[in-house]
């Protein structure tokens, strides 16, 4: 695993959003496959092609509740002149050795039951008297209430063609066919098919375990009392939820105080359950930016992992960012800025694609579209930086919500899109077409 | 709770898809609210408006790492003629009692830290020498490495206006504002806002617990050996996954044999953990249709629940359906047909909306759109029945996958849409516009 952190770093280099993302996606590798129970594999990516071991259906079977017959026995049958056949027994679904249907005979048969030997077609019960001798029937009486229904005579009022109401062996899929292709995401219908062909487990890439920790001595746990000068921790909640939303197993670590040693030991403790670490805060130029202080370790040969590099991005919000790998397994770590909007936007742009790359998904990005800007005034954006503003998208139009401030959580909670203002644009007029990331 | 099952039933009445759905949605009520931890409430619907208890930010604070100053002290400052101020200490984020900034003084301040008394604005560290006396600085040295940085002198090279780089108390949301409206679905940004205003728990409608059981003596558990005449159980897997996909907590019960007493006692056992029961199979006119036999109980005054009614729907696939309520809590039960495609389509059309109604969601249906039919031949549909064919949708076009057979699981696994052919249409020509349900 390589990382830009191993390359000679120019501290003054301003990284573009795309360069940073490319560095992340070229470092993060899909997780090793694991064999999972079907229902545990929901939402995961199939690693191998799955081949059908036994044809579906595995045997010719009835598509109706009715009577299995020989075609010649019911040729010309009508309501006026029914064909009267001897009922030789029941064929229920799951029957291992169905009765044999001889000339002049019929077997009562249920949907999905194997077509018995000798029979060529199925007459639906609605085309018979149901063996009750009382004219056209709507159905059969429950066997437990009328066990004698499997004996006696049945009057058939319609002819049938050979194979009528019979589902042929292999008409769904044939043994040897490819059921599902490697790379398929397993949703309910794919799980249906895997179960139908008898697969109890399946090899997939597992959901990544993402450990989220916020840093800052000012952070108070929601629900506790807010002391002077302090604020509630929201990042660890928001990003754990966002990790789950991206398909990961999210673990939230309570806020860590601004102390480099505490942070280092917390991260070391968490490595055991992390496929990806996400921190918030402490990445800027301040004297208390402990994530940077704790992780921006270079030149120590005893240090495991590729190292974490701290960068400035040509981006607003989200200018300061850290990325690299740590620990003996070179676990990727994203150090996001601490302002709530900065951390959320950074997560969407960098952590979500990383999670989806770990899952082995081909399409790691949120959908994007173009929309007409609806606004009362021009949008201003710092030149040379790609700006991501919060907005609401409806029917090809996007309206900004709140301002550009990276502390505006309320506006974020009412947005469903990010408006992208490119690096070379500093003013966007209302009515202009803009690029939009749909947060869906 | 009322159900059509309490109305006098005409067994020959052919129900439309819409009538059946309306009966379900008029019976199913949103679950009672529950107070949940924030991260447990992800994806749930907020029951009450949430009001902001304390303004955000709760106090004026710095948006940059830099120096808190008085405006007059830095008026006219330039690189040539810097303003030299006495550094009186650090103001870290979370500081409860920041130092006072007097005339000619500055306090080193971190992003998010409260603006200290006496100070009027913040000068970013990049506009100073960082207190190092060595010309323009890029940042501060980590406090643990250079604790003396909080003392001495700082040279400021730019003037600032009053309130520059200060986030005003309440500029995000003000105490008393409505943070979120009742009915909001809690995604990551909404969870961010709730945490930011100090809410550790929130009152939502919980995820419904959906118990899924398939019925049929022919069913074998995937992974086991397939005996003659038997097939693998796929419905219980597919529908448990579909229930989870709809937002529910899905519980899969292994396939139940075709025995009415066993089925009744299994259902009674499962009621304790069910907000909704979904069965597959045993609802048609056959002699072994035990779901119908076990549940179509009428006239017994000792029987709890409103009763389950079995119907014929003007629909393909999915003609036989059961719906009603059972047990002391009138738990809704959907009895779906047993063919894999029938049960899956029925789940999408009836069980998914029921689950989303239990969650209190306003929009319970899958999105629909119109698309041009791409096909080699005309589609044929039985007149008088609404047909749902499997298809793949791309860019305004839909292509059928597989045939109309309700046993075609493989085709279902490759579809992402249902093509709707109305009751009064029996032939659809290629190139025609059709209605499409997007399975997303």
Verbal overview:
- Two copies of one chain form a homodimer.
- In chain A, strand 25 (386-394) and strand 26 (397-400) form a beta hairpin.
- With 440 residues, chain A is α/β, with parallel strands linked by helices.
- Mean pLDDT of chain A is 92; it is low at 1-8.
- In chain A, helix 1 (17-27) runs parallel beside helix 7.
- Chain A has a seven-stranded mixed beta sheet, sandwiched between helices. A five-stranded mixed beta sheet of chain A has the order 9-6-8-7-10.
- Chain A has helices at 17-27, 71-74, 188-196, 235-245, 260-270, 290-295, 340-358, 409-413, and strands at 14-15, 34-37, 45-46, 50-51, 61-62, 66-69, 83-91, 105-109, 121-124, 152-156, 166-167, 178-180, 201-205, 209-215, 219-220, 231-232, 249-256, 276-280, 307-313, 315-316, 320-326, 331-336, 368-373, 379-380, 386-394, 397-400, 417-421, 427-428, 433-438.
- The two termini of chain A are 32 Å apart.
- Chain A folds into four domains: 4-31 and 207-358, Molybdenum Cofactor Biosythetic Enzyme, Chain A (3-Layer(aba) Sandwich); 36-56 and 179-205, Molybdopterin biosynthesis moea protein, domain 2, CATH 3.90.105.10; 61-167, Molybdopterin biosynthesis moea protein, domain 3 (Molybdopterin biosynthesis moeA protein, domain 3); 368-438, Beta Barrel (Beta-clip), CATH 2.40.340.10.
- The radius of gyration of chain A is 33 Å and the shape is elongated.
- At the A-B interface, helix 3, strand 15, strand 16, helix 4 and helix 6 of A face helix 3, strand 15, strand 16, helix 4 and helix 6 of B.
